[in-house]
């Protein structure tokens, strides 16, 4: 039997996937979760063999969940991760490796059957290698440009130009070296597209643009960024562990 945990913040998508999985012989749905933190708790408690993991969730992305798992579990304890996403196939070229699969929303039963066949093959392979390879691919900035708004004009930014992103007055703003732009993407979408580092619920930074790490109050930190204003970005306790790992301090 293949023991599965389904993680998705949208109940209709979660229910649809469960319905399809229950039609697959040999699959047992151990439980479900509707956010990243709950997923981490249930993975540690239930130790499912496979996790179908939504990428875009409000508290933490599926990629952030994967990075946490790499620090919390031994290689032999890691589950196989199957990403669930609304991205099209071209945008998901990085997922097409032999170790970790993905399924697109709305879910297709035939495609899911193919995924299950891959899972059966993967169960005999080291999960840590699988997860590390896919995360290494996904953390590289995408070549696709990011559309932003300035003075009623739409500009296209290269990811390498971006210093950090933040939420200001309910808008998501993107800071480059000397300019600030508005974008229609939310921070979770930008985190997935760019592979940048989440430091706070309202901040996402380009790790290559961090100039200095400054100790702050109660074990927290601020990051001094490499823009012309030398902007200071907070690091909250929630994201401190991941920030320390990515920046090696």
From TrEMBL:
Residues 3-120 form the Response regulatory domain. Transmembrane segments: none annotated. InterPro entries: CheY-like_superfamily, LytR-like, LytTR_DNA-bd_dom, Sig_transdc_resp-reg_receiver. Residues 146-249 form the HTH LytTR-type domain. Keywords: Phosphoprotein. CDD domains: REC_LytTR_AlgR-like. SUPFAM superfamilies: CheY-like. The modification 4-aspartylphosphate is found at residue 54. One of its GO terms (molecular function) is DNA binding. Gene3D superfamilies: 2.20.25.10, 2.40.50.40, 3.40.50.2300. May play the central regulatory role in sporulation. It may be an element of the effector pathway responsible for the activation of sporulation genes in response to nutritional stress. Spo0A may act in concert with spo0H (a sigma factor) to control the expression of some genes that are critical to the sporulation process. This is Stage 0 sporulation protein A homolog. It comes from Desulfitobacterium chlororespirans DSM 11544.
């Amino acid at each position: 039997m293949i023991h599965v945990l389904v993680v998705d913040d949208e109940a209709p998508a979660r229910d649809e996937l469960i319905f399809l999985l229950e039609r697959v012989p040999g699959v047992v749905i151990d439980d479900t979760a509707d956010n990243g933190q709950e997923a981490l708790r249930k993975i540690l408690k239930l130790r499912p063999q496979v996790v179908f993991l939504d990428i875009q969730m409000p508290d933490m992305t599926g990629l952030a969940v994967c990075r946490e798992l790499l620090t919390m579990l031994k290689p032999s304890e890691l589950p196989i991760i199957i990403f669930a996403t609304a991205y099209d196939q071209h945008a998901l070229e990085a997922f097409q490796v032999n170790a970790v699969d993905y399924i697109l929303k709305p879910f297709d039963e035939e495609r899911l059957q193919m995924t299950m066949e891959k899972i059966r093959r993967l169960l005999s392979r080291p999960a840590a290698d699988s997860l590390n390879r896919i995360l290494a691919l996904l953390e590289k900035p995408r070549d696709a440009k990011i559309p932003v708004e300035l003075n009623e004009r739409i500009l296209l930014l290269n990811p390498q130009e971006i210093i950090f992103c933040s939420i200001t007055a309910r808008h998501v703003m993107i800071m480059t070296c000397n300019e600030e732009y508005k974008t229609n993407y939310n921070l979770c979408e930008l985190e997935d597209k760019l592979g940048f580092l989440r430091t706070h619920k309202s901040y996402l930074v380009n790790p290559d643009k961090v100039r200095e790490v400054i100790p702050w109050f109660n074990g927290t930190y601020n990051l001094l960024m490499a823009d012309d204003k030398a902007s200071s970005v907070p690091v909250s306790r929630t994201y401190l562990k991941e920030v320390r790992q990515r920046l090696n301090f």
